[in-house]
Design a protein that fits this description.
The complex is a heterodimer.
Chain A: H1 4-31, E1 35-36, E2 48-55, E3 58-60, E4 63-67, E5 71-78, E6 83-87, E7 92-96, E8 104-109, E9 114-119, E10 132-138
Parallel strand pairs in A: 2-5, 4-10
Antiparallel strand pairs in A: 1-2, 2-3, 5-8, 6-7, 6-9, 9-10
Chain B: H1 2-10, H2 15-40, H3 48-72, H4 76-82, E1 125-136, E2 142-155, E3 160-169, E4 181-194, E5 197-205, H5 228-232, E6 238-249, E7 252-259, E8 289-296, E9 302-312, E10 323-335, E11 338-349, H6 352-363, E12 372-383, E13 392-407, E14 419-432, E15 435-446, E16 456-464
Antiparallel strand pairs in B: 1-2, 1-16, 2-3, 3-4, 4-5, 5-6, 6-7, 7-8, 8-9, 9-10, 10-11, 11-12, 12-13, 13-14, 14-15, 15-16
The chains are: A alpha+beta, B alpha+beta.
Chain lengths: 139, 465
């Protein structure tokens, strides 16, 4: 067995993955960037908008951190089929429309610190069970 | 004015009443438009230009009113599509009547609290199907209902979930005849402990490459799956096993499974490892194989992945117990209306010479197995229709290079017809994101001077629900 080729392959793979990761730390920050939209409506409460991309079989970003007391608006778009957005602790179970069919907007208030999970609740393929994300509410 | 007076009581009426009124208005607009056309045409009714102008004003006024009513009372589907938040009113002042969901802003509460309705048992069912037509050069055309797949899931609780995939291939399963196959491709239980560490056990898809875990027909271009995902990575590759998986944050996720190994007695020169899949059917587990995959999604629209599979494969052989290692690297990227994906995979088989000799003693024919197999592909695709279009049309080109005789053991010569390149050029039309109508032409070449490689025209219809 050629011992050099696997090593070379692994080296290339690891370098590529690390390079991608390095890019990603910047990219992830952009994806998860929040904005406070407090003056879009008269007398509206301020909220933090977080854009989420749903795609077989992941949410991006899959980890969302907010401060306790924040009103969060999730804006979710799909890159392929219709997905579900199930956030049990907020009593939310909605559908993210398929690609090109619009977006899902929903709000909830993060009243208590803790770790909460959201998941795809509409079967979307072989890896459906893996399609999950986490919301961490910090004090 | 009459129309404006309708607006006040409208809020108290049912949606069906509103729909009827909108329909009436639309009919009136259509009728006025028809009359206007008649009045304005040379052979039209009396009234002349003044009459036409008056009718045009009425049509315009009605159109404005219809549009206003449509905006004010969208259908539920339009509400979802436009992104109107169902929990929109957070106690803010609004003149509009309150929808039923606005009364209470859902409070995010600690998980693990008292049981909620969302912990009810659910039994989702979904599936995908694939119908193919293929016409190889100088051969008969084949029409094949290639796959009929149903997926079933069940949530025992928020943290205990079952998922399965049952597939009928080629439509017909007949006793001992090798027609179709009935396969249980997935059936596992997830124990969801923590985002970073979860446990899974049962019949698992091997986490290897782009396609093995993501093979719904609308999710890949081309009627047929890439050959690299067929002969180098033997998709669909599944077997019994257990392992851990999780999301490490920053877009990095992993899977690590222990699985039943491949059976070396099924390896062939043409299709590589494909015949060695045990498929969870009384799989031998003398030496368990390890499968690892890392996937990175930290950059928007970019997915990078790498996989490794390693295991002993001589479970049905007395004198030799060769190891197989597969390394794989893949990436996908989208930029505006363009997409790219690529994959590289290489297979290493130890004791290939001894394995060839052992199999020759068993069957009388040497399988001429290589000690290394290699394949890669690159694919570019462009969404041709404008983003606003109801439909999607994607043109694509894919180049594959794969060789199941890449490096031979001492004393064995490579069969050049298995050193192949394949161009696939085609298009996929999506009348709906979950339905794909595909057409492509495949140009296959090999390095042999004696054995030809037929080109092929393919049509396909695939859908997911």
């Amino acid at each position: 067995m050629d011992q050099e080729s696997p090593s070379r392959f692994l080296t290339v793979a690891v370098i590529a993955l690390l390079a991608g990761s390095a890019l990603g730390f910047a990219g992830a920050a952009v994806t998860a960037r929040t904005r406070t939209a407090s003056n879009q409506e008269p007398a509206a409460q301020p909220f933090v908008e977080i854009r989420v991309t749903a795609e077989r079989f992941s949410f991006t970003p899959s980890l969302i951190k907010v401060a306790a007391g924040t009103i969060v608006e999730i804006v979710a778009e799909s890159e392929d089929t219709t997905h579900g957005f199930h956030l049990a602790d907020a009593g939310i179970d909605e559908q993210v429309p398929a690609r090109g069919k619009g977006e899902l907007r929903l709000r909830f208030e993060a009243t208590q610190a803790g770790t909460y999970f959201f998941e795809c609740s509409r079967p979307c393929g072989a890896g459906h069970n893996t399609m999950r994300g986490t919301i961490i509410v910090e004090d | 004015m009459v129309l404006l007076c309708w607006a006040a009581p409208l809020a108290a009426q049912t949606e069906s009443d509103l729909a009827e009124r909108i329909l009436t208005l639309e009919q009136q607009v259509a009728e006025l438009t028809r009359r206007l056309s008649g009045a304005a045409s040379p052979g039209g009714q009396p009234g002349g230009l003044a009459g036409a102008t008056a009718l045009a004003d009425r049509v315009a006024a009605l159109e404005v009113e219809v549009q206003r009513l449509l905006r004010e009372f969208p259908s539920p589907a339009e509400q979802r599509a436009s992104g109107t938040p169902p929990l929109r009113r957070l106690g803010t002042a609004s003149a509009a009547p309150a929808p039923p969901l606005q009364t209470a802003l859902p409070s995010l509460q600690r998980s693990g609290a008292a049981a909620r309705p969302t912990e009810d048992l659910r039994l989702p069912v979904s599936g995908y199907m694939e119908l193919n037509f293929s016409k190889p050069q100088e051969q008969s055309a084949v029409l094949d209902f290639r796959r009929f797949v149903l997926l079933f899931g069940h949530s025992f609780s928020e943290r205990l979930k079952f998922w399965s995939e049952l597939e009928v291939e080629h439509a017909l399963v007949e006793g001992a005849e090798e027609k179709g196959e009935l396969e249980l491709e997935q059936a596992y239980v997830d124990f969801l402990l923590h985002p970073a560490v979860n446990v899974r056990g049962g019949m698992l898809l091997t986490p290897m490459g782009i396609l093995n875990e993501r093979h719904e027909p609308p999710s890949f271009y081309g009627v047929l799956r890439p050959q690299v995902d067929t002969v180098i990575i033997p998709s669909t590759w599944f077997d019994v096993g257990a392992g851990v998986f999780g999301d490490l944050g920053k877009g990095l996720s992993y899977k690590f499974y222990g699985m039943a190994p491949l059976d070396a007695t099924g390896f062939t020169a043409e299709e590589g490892l494909r015949g060695g899949r045990q498929k969870g059917s009384q799989s031998f587990l003398e030496d368990w194989a390890q499968a690892v995959r890392l996937e990175y999604r930290g950059v928007p629209r970019l997915v990078l992945g790498t996989s490794l599979w390693s295991g002993k494969t001589g479970l049905n052989l007395q004198t030799v117990n060769p190891s197989v290692r597969i390394y794989e690297f893949d990436g996908r990227y989208r930029w505006r209306r363009l997409e790219w994906r690529g994959q590289f995979a290489k297979t290493y088989l130890t004791q290939a010479r001894e394995l060839n000799l052992a199999l020759e003693r068993q069957t009388g024919v040497s399988p001429n197995l290589a000690r290394q197999m290699r394949g890669f592909y690159l694919e570019g695709a462009a969404h041709i229709l404008p983003r606003q279009s109801r439909f999607d049309l994607v043109g694509f080109a894919r180049y594959e290079n794969f060789d199941t005789q890449f490096r031979m053991p001492r004393g064995f010569l490579p069969l050049k017809q298995f050193d192949r390149t394949l161009w696939t050029l085609g298009a996929s039309f999506y009348p709906h994101p979950d339905i794909a109508v595909k057409a492509d032409y495949q140009i296959l070449q090999n390095e042999s001077r004696a054995v030809g490689a037929p080109n092929q025209f393919n049509l396909g219809l695939g859908w997911w629900f």
